[in-house]
Design goal:
The complex is a heterodimer of chains A (about 350) and B (about 260).
Chain A lengths: L2 H35 L7 H8 L5 H36 L11 H14 L9 H21 L5 H25 L3 H12 L7 H20 L1 H7 L3 H6 L4 H23 L5 H13 L7 H21 L8 H19 L1 H6 L3
Helix pairs in contact in A: 1-2, 1-3, 1-13, 2-3, 3-8, 3-11, 3-12, 3-13, 4-5, 4-6, 4-7, 4-11, 5-6, 5-11, 8-11, 12-13
Chain B lengths: L6 E10 L2 E11 L4 E5 L6 H8 L6 E6 L2 E2 L5 H7 E4 L11 H6 L15 H13 L15 H14 L4 E5 L7 H16 L3 E5 L3 H7 L2 E6 L2 E6 L1 H4 L2 H8 L1 E8 L2 E9 L1
Parallel strand pairs in B: 3-8, 3-9, 6-7, 7-8
Antiparallel strand pairs in B: 1-2, 1-4, 4-5, 9-10, 11-12
Helix pairs in contact in B: 4-5
Classes of the chains: A mainly alpha (about 350), B alpha/beta (about 260).
């Protein structure tokens, strides 16, 4: 075999990845159009495009551009961020069962946000909510990595994550328990379920800067994840500053997940599921998994958010509830598949 | 040895979790040599390799080609030292070619799908030298232990670093593959690299190494050509064994024989 042949087989793999990416982009665009069209007033994709660019009736324009567009942008951005965070955490920890939601990051972010809501500081124009959520998410991911240590096995990570998310849940319950205002409690309870209902462009402005910053940080580290496939010590011997990489991933995940939770409440299991759906299509290379996982995450959340608007029910189904109902059985399936690694205690 | 030292250490001391693992080790090693690093379990062999590569903090001075190790960036260190750890762990089922291509990471080739012609040639040379061409497109997790350790070797060779640090590269291999890997490393040394190999196999050390370094309890207690460095007295004091000694095809033969 010559250099050309070795390069040629790599080219085939690259073309395959490119076509998967193209298909994902088309899927996401279709879901965006669908999401803009679905609701009490149903609009066809063509009408949606028309209204989006200033055509159609005034009512249609208001529905598409002011009511549904912010919700759709948030679904797209938050889903992408969750998928990206999951892939990044799995890359950092070299572990297919890693995801922010399993390690208590969204739960902790929710606690930070609930604290702000309970004290009446939450205002759609103030950055107190996302900042509190980001700080709490950062603290939780940092604590997890500190407790679990450098080469933690699957079991330790999951136990530590369970403890952290339980603590965040208990702290949230305590805040609700101590709150004297029943309306605030109800507001928190619904907010915790996770939803994209009635979000405006103010919400988009609140979350998007943090999500974009988090995504840029995570994507900038992509090649280091690949070197990390060989273990931390070998990665260091190849010139990767592993300590810095950890800090970057923690910061990126905290910014993105914190920003997302601040406007949507907690939407679980997209970060865990998205990378798993992509591995059979684009391979296991943790660097090449990031962008497809982000696209898959966006598609999953947009689809779930469309589904909650279509499923007939007497009261609104929250999208966070739907993703968890689907995500948890998937998690159980993954545990079943990873049984051997789990009972061995090492990843 | 009149040639200039490639790697030199003075007063190298390493403390891990409060315990002195290396004590005042000084050495000077030249290019074009295969050096075997031997010693009983816990003598500090792996720690010495890691300290030389700058992977553990150490006291004392390390120089590579006259430059202080502490003055070099992580990437520059990575270009000068190829490190082959024990165990050959790969966490994801990646194709062999991509694993080997990671050896070009210190040279800026961070994406195996976009290698420059120069990097692709280095990868090809490394895969040929370590004899992994037959399964270059297979996933590393599907390979046997012996095949996987050759992939790890190819990855280290692809760095094309002047210094190769290999930690027990033959420990899990059958005799034929042990000879094969040692011969590959020997050939790399003959082309001008400095190869330092940690091994428990005194026979292979005697057969292939130009120099043997004997570590005991964190100290460098003996060094020199295999027959001198592994003299009867050293074997007795450090390893607490006696050995059968002979010469075969003009190479030293040392076979551990009995405990003392």
């Amino acid at each position: 075999m010559s250099t050309q042949n070795v390069m040629a087989t790599a080219d085939i793999a690259a073309r395959r990845r490119a076509s998967v990416m193209a298909a994902l982009v088309i899927l996401v665009v279709l879901l965006v159009l669908l999401s803009l069209g679905v609701g009490p007033v149903r609009l066809s994709p063509l009408r949606v495009i028309d209204a989006l660019f200033g055509g159609g009736s005034d009512v249609q324009q208001v529905i598409v551009r002011e009511i549904r567009l912010p919700r759709t942008i948030l679904g797209l951005a938050i889903g992408a961020m969750l998928g990206l965070s999951g892939a990044a955490m799995q890359g950092l920890l070299r572990n297919p069962l890693a995801a922010p939601e399993l390690f208590g990051a969204p739960q902790s972010a929710a606690f930070g946000a609930v604290l702000v809501i309970a004290f009446g500081l939450a205002d759609v124009r103030s950055y107190a909510l996302p900042v509190a959520a980001i700080a709490a998410a950062f603290a939780s991911v940092f604590a997890l990595l500190a407790i679990a240590g450098r080469n933690a096995g699957l079991l330790i990570l999951i136990l530590a994550g369970l403890a952290i998310s339980s603590l965040a849940g208990a702290a949230t319950a305590l805040v609700m328990n101590l709150s004297s205002n029943p309306f605030v409690v109800l507001e928190i309870a619904f907010w915790l379920l996770g939803s994209l209902d009635d979000r405006s462009f103010r919400h988009v402005m609140l979350a998007l800067p943090f999500i974009v910053a988090g995504a840029v940080i995570l994507l900038s580290q992509r090649h280091a994840f690949r070197a990390l496939s060989l273990g931390e010590e070998t990665a260091r011997s190849l010139g990767v500053d592993v300590g810095r990489l950890r800090l970057m991933v923690i910061s990126g995940v905290a910014l993105g997940v914190g920003g997302a939770v601040a406007v949507s409440g907690s939407i679980g299991f997209i970060g865990l599921v998205a990378p798993h759906l992509m591995r059979p299509l684009v391979g296991h290379d943790p660097a090449r998994l990031l962008v497809p996982s982000a696209l898959a995450g966006a598609a999953l959340l947009l689809a779930a958010d469309i589904a909650v608007r279509i499923i007939p029910s007497t009261s609104d189904i929250k999208v966070g509830v739907l993703t968890s109902i689907i995500g948890v059985p998937f998690f159980l399936y993954l545990i079943m598949r990873e049984r051997r690694a789990l009972s061995g205690g090492v990843a | 040895m009149t040639d200039v030292a490639l790697v030199a250490a003075q007063g190298l001391t390493v403390k891990l979790a409060g315990r002195l693992v290396l004590r005042d080790v000084s050495l000077s090693l030249s290019p074009g040599h295969l050096v075997a690093l031997v010693g009983p379990n816990g003598a500090g062999k792996t720690t010495l390799l890691r300290a030389l590569a700058g992977l553990v903090p150490s006291e004392g001075a390390i120089h590579v080609r006259g430059d202080a190790l502490s003055s070099l960036s992580l990437r520059e260190r990575a270009r000068r030292f190829a490190y082959l750890p024990q165990g050959h762990l790969v966490h994801w089922p990646l194709p062999v070619r991509d694993i080997v291509a990671l050896g070009r990471y210190p040279h800026g080739a961070t994406d195996p799908a976009r290698l420059t012609a120069k990097d692709a040639e280095a990868v090809l040379r490394a895969m040929q030298a370590a004899d992994v061409m037959d399964f270059s497109e297979r996933r590393v997790t599907e390979l046997s232990g012996g095949e996987r350790s050759r992939v790890a070797l190819a990855r280290a060779l692809a760095v094309e670093a002047p210094v190769i640090l290999a930690d027990e590269p033959v420990s899990s291999l059958d005799p034929r593959h042990q000879l094969d890997v040692m011969k590959t490393l020997r050939a790399v040394a003959d082309k001008g690299a400095l190869v330092i190999v940690v091994t428990h196999d005194l026979g292979l050390a005697a057969r292939f190494a130009d120099n043997v370094l004997v570590l005991s309890d964190g100290r460098l207690v003996s060094q020199g050509a295999p027959a001198e460095a592994l003299a009867e007295q050293v074997m007795a004091e450090v390893f607490r064994i006696s050995a059968y000694r002979a010469e075969f095809q003009r190479e030293a033969v040392i076979v551990p024989w009995a405990e003392i």
